[in-house]
Every structure is written in C-alpha cells, then in structure tokens.
Amino acid sequence: MNIRPRRNRKSAPIRSMVEETKIGVEHLIYPIFLKDGIKIKEEISSLPKNFRWSIDLLIPEIEQCLKLGISTFDIFPAVEEHLKDKTASYSYASDNFYLNAIWKLKETFPEMIIMTDVALDPYSSDGHDGLVENGKILNDQTLPILNKMALAQAQAGADIIGPSDMMDGRVGSIRETLDINGFSDVSIMSYTAKYASAFYGPFRDALNSAPKSGDKKSYQMNPANKREALLEAELDVMEGADFIMVKPALCYLDIIHLLKENFNIPVTAYNVSGECAMVYAAAEKGWLNYDLAISEMLLSMRRAGADAILTYFAKDFAQLLKK
Ligand code: PBG
Question: What is the CATH number of the domain that holds 207?
C-alpha cells in the first residue's frame, strides 16, 4: 500500500493541521424567548435549558453570553393571548414590550447584534404567519403588516430583520420600507428555504403560537422539494436579502450545500427547536454524549456550507469551546 489515509490521522496535531472545517463562537446566533413582566425565567417543557425571560433577568444572561463571545441574538416574543388579534396589530403597537426590550438591550449593550423576527404568528389570534380569511392565508394583504412590523423593529434598534413568514415578495417590500424610512443599514436575513416541518413543535410551545386551524403547507415549503429552494433564493437575492437561511438544518444539509454552491451571499442554517429537543432528551436518558453530539451536529452544518448557525445550543457550545 503506498497510499494510507490513516497517516494523516495519526496524531492530534496532524489531524488538526488537515482539518477542513472550522467552527467558532463567531458563527453562532442565539435564539432567545422574551416575555412581558419582571423576574420571569420559565423553562420551556419541550425545550429544556431554554426559558421565557423577562427583560430584567435577560440582561445578566446576555451579559454572560457576550462574555463567552456570542455577539448575535435572535429574540422572539411570547405574547399574551388577550393581546392577539386577527391582524397582529400588537406587533407594531407603541407600548409593545418586545420593542421596548430591544431598545433597552441596545442601550445596555451597544455592541450586541440584535436580530428580530417578522411574521404574524406570535401576535395572531389565528396562529398563522399571514392574514387568514375563510381558511386561506392572504399573501399581498399581509405585506403591509410585515412592513409595519419590520419598521417598528428597526426603529427600536434591530440590526438584522428576520422575515420568517414565507409570504411571496416580502423581502423586497420590507427592503423598500426600511430604505424610504432611512434604515438602509438594517440587514435582512431571509428565511429563504423554510420547510413545513415537524421540528418546530417546541418553539410553538414556547410562544403558544401553533395554528388554531389548518397547517402551514400553503406557505412553507414541501420537504420533498429541492429545486424550489433555488427559486426562493433567486427571488430573495433579487429582492435585496443580505443572508439566505435554510430551516430546519439537520434534515436539510443538502439544501444548505445547494444554496452555498449557487449564491454569493452568506448562507445561514436554523438548527430548530425540535432538532435540539431530540438531543436534550437523548442526553438526559444517557443515550448519547451531549457535548460530542452538539459539536458534531453544528460542525455538519458548517461543513454543508452554513456561514452562521442559529442554535439553542449556542451558550453550551460557547462554553465548550472555552474548555
Ligand atoms: C414562525 C417561526 C417558527 C420558527 C421560527 N419562526 C415556527 C413556525 O413556522 O411555526 C421555528 C423555530 C424553531 O423551531 O426553533 N414564524
């Protein structure tokens, strides 16, 4: 044998020298759930180790994460039922606790990068990402609401707007709204290839945002489709997205790879709640090693082509990297 691949694996320094994929804390975005009130830190039963925070308790938590090197946070609001309506009007209300919290966080930690979510579902009495009429999700009538929401978030201090609703044309519509209002520096990370997935369950528990009727298949993508992701990405790039996201990540590594090969803007991956919940549960039962499993999962997303990864493992993984 003159070719022996094992020679390049014979010691840790040689393995490290030829390592093809790197992952660091700079690649992580940490999703966080926010709730109105004070002294609240409620664990999400289907997503252990993750909490609904009130802003007073979230501030020291963010401080810890910043010290660990995590710079970017994606914040989601858990809205009380009585504030929800058919048009999600609370999403841009002037007394909205989420917008106030973004303002407060930015004031406390000017160096922190805040990503916000644009979609109707956390504020909608129907639990859908768009307006519902006679069981149908309306596309064009939803866009003005998304624009108002995005603008309110930019005014509160958001650095990156994350449209997660999958309405057609929303990236262009939000881009135009931000630009004419003087927010041309605010970025858009589009949920480009967002699939109608079974892995969003714990997230919907966290926000109590599950659809009251029907499912999301008329706007989120069919998990069987790959070429359609190219079309979605083409549109988002033309409409002015700064990042294109694939969601979920683990069952869609081929889509991450496909978009990375075909587009010249950064690709991000959302390692969603259900993917993380599986690991928490198996590790709790002692069926797999948590540290090794999360490291391998996050590495696989980077290897597939993700520039950045949204993951509930962010804090644990950052701690692991410090060791
Ligand atoms: C909804 C939204 C969802 C997630 C992020 N934004 C769920 C859904 O589409 O029902 C899921 C994230 C996760 O599961 O971690 N706009």
Answer: 3.20.20.70
